[in-house]
Structures are given as C-alpha cells and as structure tokens.
C-alpha cells in the first residue's frame, strides 16, 4: 500500500497535476516584475516571496511539493551506506584539508566571507552505482525504482532540489511523462552532469568537470566507461572544455529533457562542499586541460601577465566608468580583455600565464582555476559572493576585494582606491 501511494504521489505531482498547474500559474497568474527579473539574474536560488505576495495560495501549493520532496529524498549519507552494502561504492582515499585566510580589503569584510575563514576538511570523493534509475525533467532529477530522489543528482542540496522541481514543473505537461518505461530512452551505463546550474559557466567548471576525476577512477577499477549525459544544446565552451579534458563526441550524449531509464547510473560526488571547492579537484582539472590546450586557440593572441577583465558585454555588474579604470590600470601595465570575444582555449591560455588579475565579480573569474601564483583583486557592487574568494584562498593566491559604489546592477570604481590596493598587493607579492 505504501509503495502504491508513493507511485501515485510521484505520478500526480511530477507528471500530471503540478506540471499543468504550475505552468498555468507561471504564465497567467504571476507577473514577472523588474525586481523579480533582477533577483533571478543575481541569485542562483531566487526568492519566492514576491510570487507569494502576488498569489498567496502559491505558498500552500509549494508547501505540498516541498513536503513531498523532503519525505522522499536519499541524502548523501544514505546513498553511501546503501551502495557500500551492495559493493557498488568506489572512493578515492585521500585526505584534503584547506585553510581559508582573511581577505585583504580597505573596507569591512562581509559576514559571508568571514564565515568561510579557517580550516575545512573535505569528505572522500566517491562514485556510487545505483541501478534502475529514471532521470526526469529538464534538469535530469534522479528517481530510484522506489520513487525516491537521489539528492546527489541535484548537487546534494535541498534548496537546489526545491528550485529544480519548480523549474521542471513550470515547463508544463509532456506526453513523454505518460509513456511506458519501455517506450522511453534507455541507457545501459551513464553518468549525468546535468543539473539546475550546469548551464552556468562557473558551476560547469567547478561542479561538473571536477566530478570526472572520480568517474575515471571508477572506470579504472571496473574497466567500464559510462556514457556522459550533458546539457541539451550545450554552449560551445561546454563542448570545448570536454574536448580539452580528453573526451570526444562518442563519449557523451545530450539530455533529451524529459525522461530516460538508466540501468546503472554512476553518481559522482560533487567536489564543492560548504561553499568551498576541492583544491585537489581543481589541480586535477587544471593539469588535464593544460596538457591538451597547446593544440588549440589563437597563436596570435596577446598574452599579458597583468589582466583587467571587462564585463562590458554582460547584463549586470558592468563598470560604468570603465574607460577611466582602463586608463588608470594601463599606467601599471594592465591590459583589458573581453572574455566573450575569446575561445575557451584562449581563455585557458590567458589565465594560465597571468600573474595579476583585476575583475568584477562574474563568471569570467572562474578561469583562475587555470592560474598559478596569482594575485587577484575582485570588484563588487550590489551582489556580494564568497565563491571566488574561497577558490583563490584554497589555491593559495593573494586575494583582495574592493566594494564599489553600486548603480542599480552595475558599479562605479574609485580609481584612486583601486590604485592603492594594486600597490598594496604588489608589495605583498614582492615581500
């Protein structure tokens, strides 16, 4: 009876009632305001309060959904225990501890940064093999045969699971949801890199590529090579990054966006924990990509060791007085780059030889994973994030942050203050 009820709940919530209901609400009852659009651009986990204000009953509708999710998920600890009992667990046995030092700044350091300071120990990375899995929806949520959700398929975070479910159900009803299991796509052995954030550059580099280390360990131990499942219509940098990691088109398939039955799903652990990235995983990705990058890219690209990253082609966090900033930095031999104009391989080469980088917070800073012995000054406006602070500190780079005047979603940089920080960081580096 309990199992039958679970099947019915999963069917009604994920495949019939909620897809129809949430799509209708999203398209007809909720007005996307300018403030909501801004929140969605600036926050990977957008707030729901504005929607609740427009449609109070939505809070109740979501509460039913969230209760179902919370009651039917398999957290990491349970996944490990189950796979250990079935001899389907493969773990890299090494200890990793990092020390996050305080950031350098002339201004008060935000609490979000302070909370990450100190020593942090990572868990051992693992590949867990789970049988008879159904991947569901645009973000490939992993359901077991018993209709339990594998939390690791949604980045091992309950808040990400909630928003993944909302995003999935807002796509609406699809007749594939009602198809018999025998009539949907079948894959014998696979590893999914698809999730709510995988189309985002930083999350792809730090949370998808880093998983491949333990996947390859699994392949070494078993002699099996799972098919990678990647985003549907992936951006060119996603394909190029896999190419530089040594993967060819025959090694992966694009996610179909609806359903697939996986006989054996290799679930590889996320290498980012507690807002901190595994530095061993970063070094592994860096070494792999740099070993292949020389055969790609533009041989005529000017490579300056002192780099200023422009966000002039971005939608937010642009520097409104950028010309003045560029002129100020040019006196100290900094060269501006617009990363949207560069191929992925060229970005790798640029950052691999960099000594000093100044950049507004944004996806381009992701590329510091390819750097060595770097000094980084990160510029912030309204949005404050510890993401690259923890990466830089973990990689033992010299890191400083500057909190600039916010003009809506863009920023205005105090060039005199920036010059002072550059001078201070240069002395720190020399000293």
UniProtKB/TrEMBL annotation:
Domain Glycosyltransferase 61 catalytic: 201-375
Keyword line: Glycoprotein, Glycosyltransferase, Transferase
A UniProt-annotated Pfam family: Glyco_transf_61
Superkingdom of origin organism: Bacteria
InterPro entries linked to this entry: Glyco_transf_61_cat, Glycosyltransferase_61
Protein name as it appears in the record: Glycosyltransferase family 61 protein
Species in which this protein is naturally found: Nostoc paludosum FACHB-159
């Amino acid at each position: 009876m309990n199992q039958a009820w679970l099947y019915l709940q999963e069917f009604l919530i994920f495949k019939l009632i909620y897809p129809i209901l949430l799509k209708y609400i999203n398209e007809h009852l909720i007005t996307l305001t300018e403030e909501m659009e801004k929140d969605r651009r600036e926050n990977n986990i957008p707030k729901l309060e504005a929607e609740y204000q427009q449609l109070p009953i939505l809070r109740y509708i979501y509460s039913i959904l969230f209760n179902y999710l919370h009651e039917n998920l398999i957290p990491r600890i349970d996944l490990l225990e189950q796979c250990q009992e079935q001899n389907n667990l493969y773990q890299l046995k090494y200890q990793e501890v990092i020390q996050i030092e305080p950031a350098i700044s002339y201004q008060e350091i935000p609490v979000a940064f302070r909370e990450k300071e100190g020593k942090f120990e990572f868990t051992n990375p693992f590949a867990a093999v789970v049988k008879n899995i159904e991947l569901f929806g645009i973000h490939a949520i992993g359901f077991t045969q018993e209709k339990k959700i594998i939390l690791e398929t949604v980045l091992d975070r309950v808040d990400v699971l909630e928003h993944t479910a909302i995003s999935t159900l807002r796509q609406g009803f699809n007749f594939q949801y009602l198809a018999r299991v025998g009539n949907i796509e079948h894959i014998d052995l696979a590893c999914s890199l698809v999730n709510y954030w995988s189309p985002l550059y930083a999350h792809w580099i730090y949370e998808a590529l880093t998983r491949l280390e333990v996947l390859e360990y699994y392949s070494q131990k078993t002699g099996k090579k799972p098919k990678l499942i990647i985003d549907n219509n992936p951006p060119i940098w996603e394909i190029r990054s896999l190419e530089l990691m040594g993967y060819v088109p025959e090694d992966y398939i694009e996610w179909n966006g609806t359903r697939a039955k996986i006989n054996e799903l290799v679930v590889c652990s996320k290498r980012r924990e507690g807002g901190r990235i595994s530095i061993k995983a970063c070094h592994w990705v860096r070494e792999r990509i740099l070993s292949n990058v020389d055969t790609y890219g533009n041989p005529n690209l000017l490579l300056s060791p002192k780099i200023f990253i422009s966000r002039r082609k971005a939608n937010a966090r642009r520097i409104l007085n950028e010309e003045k900033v560029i002129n100020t930095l040019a006196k100290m031999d900094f060269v501006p780059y617009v990363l949207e104009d560069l191929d992925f391989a060229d970005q790798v080469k640029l950052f691999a030889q960099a000594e000093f980088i100044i950049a507004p917070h944004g996806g381009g800073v992701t590329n510091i994973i390819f750097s060595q012995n770097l000094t980084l000054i990160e510029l912030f406006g309204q949005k404050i994030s510890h993401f690259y602070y923890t990466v830089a500190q973990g990689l033992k780079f010299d890191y400083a942050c500057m909190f600039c005047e916010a003009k809506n979603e863009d920023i205005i940089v105090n060039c005199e203050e920036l010059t002072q920080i550059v001078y201070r960081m240069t002395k720190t580096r020399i000293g």
